[in-house]
Amino acid sequence: MIRRTISRPVRAAAALGVVALVAAGCTSNTPEAADTTSSDSQRAGSSNDDPGDKVTIGFSGPAADHGWLGAINSAAQAEAKKFSDVEFKAAEGTNDASQQIAQVETFINDKVDAIVLLPTDGAALTEVATKAMNAGIIVVNVDREFSTPFAARTTILGDNYGMGVSAGTYACKLVKDKNLTNPVIAEIAGIDALPLTQDRSKGFADALKGCNQTVDNRVAAEFTVESGEKVASNLLQAAPKIDIIWNHDDDQGVGVMAAFDNAKRNEFAFIGGAGSANAMRWIKEGKMEATVLYPPTQAADGVRLARLLAQDKSMSDLVQVAVPRRIVLDAPVVTKDNVEEYLPLGFES
Q1: SS3 label, residue 278
Q2: pLDDT for the residue numbered 139
């Protein structure tokens, strides 16, 4: 997944964040997205990073009480600083939907050019986001979708189902490569009530069907270190033999790894999720098999696209040059073979 202009190898990944995104949504019935005039074609030949008209972008996201969310916020701010033509107004992170609605209202009153919004609750923020759009302000929705497409010009999403598919596909590869007979496969999920957890689990189960495997042991944590250690300890007690474990979240993975160490269990291949710096260091050290990225750069991508949209620019790498209305980022597997490429994107838990 991901994308940002950090180093040359990561720049290659960054290209996916703007090009591979497109497969998810470069067609639309709206005149805005369907317009491919000659002026668009001319703009497509220019460098989108060249300074343009000054634009003001408001950003609102949840409180950074989780390593991934902290990375989301810092990456957005860092991206905005790269552009001399962007005035970036970041609201204080909050998990209170009412407070976030008030932040968006302030952006509307300030007449910003665009708003990049990772809502605490997509449904709760839909009405005020629609109000911003109706006021002529471009809204870029990040990670948690609004209830209607009219609330945003563009939506940028991680691929939760795709994370599960990537993890399951890699697990199948391990089964084949290690010539495992009747392997025991375990899963440490996040909060089961959340659709994102359900999507990840479904993708994992669907991919395992490709090699005639199923999840033998499953527990659910709460995306925290403490819960990760607790449920992993319970899992290890219940399953004296495990061949492969997929943990949905690398932040809770700190606790999961602690449980492994306490139990002195390391006979299994450990696959993580999200792409923390801890996980990538463990991969380099041989303590972890792989992790599946859930890009912490979604809001940074949102800033880049909000700037393009506010400056009436297009995406020069596309044939259909208009900025897509819906973008789903990739969920690549990071292993010892490519960890150096993705390490600059790893977030601290």
Answers
A1: helix
A2: 98
* Sequence-distant (≥ 6) Cβ neighbours of residue 178 within 8 angstroms: 243, 269
Cα-only R_g, the chain: 21
Instruction: Write out pLDDT tens, residues 273-288.
Output: 999 999 999 999 999 9
Distance of CA 196 to the CA centre of its chain: 11
> Which of 78-92, 197-211, 305-319 has the least mean pLDDT?
305-319
Band of pLDDT at residue 46, cut at 50, 70 and 90? low
What structural domains and CATH numbers belong to the chain? 8-158+296-330 (3.40.50.2300), 160-293 (3.40.50.2300)
Tokens linked to 215: 């999840």
Query: Could you tell me the two tokens for 141?
Result: 């929705």
Cα–Cα dist 242/221, whole Å: 18
> DSSP secondary-structure letter at 92?
P
Q: Which of 225, 284, 286, 293 is nearest to 259 (CA)?
A: 225
Backbone angles phi, psi at 278, to 5 degrees: -55, -50
Do residues 83 and 47 touch, judged by C-beta distance below 8 A? no
Instruction: Tell me the pTM.
Output: 0.81
